[in-house]
Amino acid sequence: MSDLDHIMSVMDAAFDPHWREAWTRQQVENSLAMPHTYAIIFDKHARLLAPGSEAAGFILARRAPSEEELLLIGVRPEVRNSGVGRALIEYFSDVARKEGAERVFLEMRANNPAEKLYLSCGFEPIGRRANYYRTLDGTLLDAITFAQRL
Ligand SMILES: CC(C)(COP(=O)(O)OP(=O)(O)OC[C@H]1O[C@@H](n2cnc3c(N)ncnc32)[C@H](O)[C@@H]1OP(=O)(O)O)[C@@H](O)C(=O)NCCC(=O)NCCS
């Protein structure tokens, strides 16, 4: 299985279509073809995926000269609340720091319970875009930008 296959198998399981946050296979493929976009894929033990293992969670991220952006994070429902999400974020921040980033960013829909995880990982809300997301039933939700100083 390719990284793209692993990411899409987690994507299909992790994201509720109602929120319209999941990316299509084409979107992921296009983004990974860009030179500064990369994926971190972990197994259920929160270790980097080894050949032959099953992916439990992933982060898609984009690198810029002094900052990085966490584009998307997903963990399979059956392995949630065992620390895979936190380990992915800590690994991402660690790699960004080593690459010379001073800050990392992410953006989240206003009512996502993942906020608790982001706050406890050291992210702080720094901005809000009104009515940025539209759910399947047409409800509009703000986007909140979080930043973590490294
Ligand atoms: C957000 C997500 C990646 C977290 O993954 P996870 O592996 O369950 O995270 P962890 O086990 O490391 O959780 C760490 C902490 O955050 C809390 N937390 C995580 N997700 C939560 C949720 N959905 N609701 C409430 N609390 C949550 C946990 O209670 C835990 O707190 P604790 O350490 O104080 O006990 C996962 O819930 C997910 O894939 N959600 C769907 C996709 C999504 O919304 N992604 C984010 C937007 S792009």
TrEMBL record:
Domain of life of the native organism: Bacteria
Keywords: Acyltransferase, Transferase
Record carries keyword Transferase: yes
Keyword Amino-acid biosynthesis in record: no
Signal peptide bounds: none
InterPro entries named among the record's database cross-references: Acyl_CoA_acyltransferase, GNAT_dom, YpeA/RimI_acetyltransf
Annotated CDD domains: NAT_SF (cd04301)
SUPFAM superfamilies: Acyl-CoA N-acyltransferases (Nat) (SSF55729)
N-acetyltransferase domain ranges (all copies): 19-123
A Pfam family: Acetyltransf_1
UniProt protein name: GNAT family N-acetyltransferase
Organism whose genome encodes this protein: Qipengyuania citrea
